[in-house]
Target: Small ribosomal subunit protein uS4
Amino acid sequence: MTKRAESKYKINRRLGVNLWGRAKSPIAKREYGPGQHGQRRKNKPTDFGIQLMAKQKLKGYYGNIGEKQFRKYYDEAVRRKGDTSENLIELLERRLDCVIYRMKFAVTPFASRQFVNHGHITVNGKRVNIPSYLVKDGDLIEVKEKSKGLTAVLDAAQSGERDVPEYIQVDHRQMKGSFVRAPKLSDVPYPVQMEPNLVVEFYSR
Model:
């Protein structure tokens, strides 16, 4: 198991929020940080600390994306026309592993990344095993025929923990769907409040 995957069990407690809205989250039992000093009283956060926390929440939500890659998304968001924070959310939501998670073909962003890595997904009929692949409007995403009966996929599709957002279309019987349009921040069903504007402030210091 990689360090990135291993760390998911501590992300919620470190950030103090139920990042993915799951009933199994450890934050439900221990509302303090992990480790020996997790219960110490916290000082009032600085502006830098608030911005850093907003960045860590957003990175963590999308499967604990690495800093180098996340910074590339920010740079691309700045380069594009329009609101930088909205552009950043759009880029993150276009990631193939995120789209698979939104379609409920995987129960967590980590499982979704692994599912794509293992070659279970096609985009417009072609096998794609790169989780960071950016999906375009109208792209057809489908679970490969041999993978449609996997227990993990069936369980995720039937899960009542979350709904499929409006900017995604999906047919769970045929295990395929499409990315309809780019979402706005208000469209994205985050279980906790995300503040991409603070992430922009963090990088633009």
User: Anything to note?
Assistant: The longest strand covers residues 140-143. The chain has nine helices and five strands.
